[in-house]
Input
Amino acid sequence: MLGGLITTLFQVIGGIFSMIFSLVWWILMIVADWKVLNKAGEPGWKSIIPFYDSYTFYKIAWDTRVFWLWLALAVGAGIFEAMSELFFLFGVIAVLCNLAYAVINFLYCICLASSFGKGKLFGVGLWLAGPIFTMILAFGPARYQGRSSFSGNF
Output
């Protein structure tokens, strides 16, 4: 009985620490996104509105048309995945949508890095460890240099 009480107590304490860590991380990411947008000449408040933040980041890094393609692929992948039990080909289409989504996301990260004067390796870092590299952009000396030169080639 005492062992169960101690286990429950540790689970509650662990849950509280997890919630506090998640809240602090979430606030830190909002602040980092806010600062990155400010560096690019955009109002930071755009970072707190779902989808509009992504739209704004695509606007400063690449092209908003690519954002709409990215969003369509994400929605399409979800729809086709949900329907994959009906017909095998829907599962294949979902996988292809997810692959295209991942490629666009990778290229977006390269463009975002380039728009702040960073190299392709930094873009790979944004793709693999986005929150950490976003904080480096936000709190480091990087300055916005305009859209990536890759932006006009879509």
In short: Residues 2-39 form the longest helix (38 residues). The mean pLDDT is 92. DSSP finds six helices and no strands in the chain.
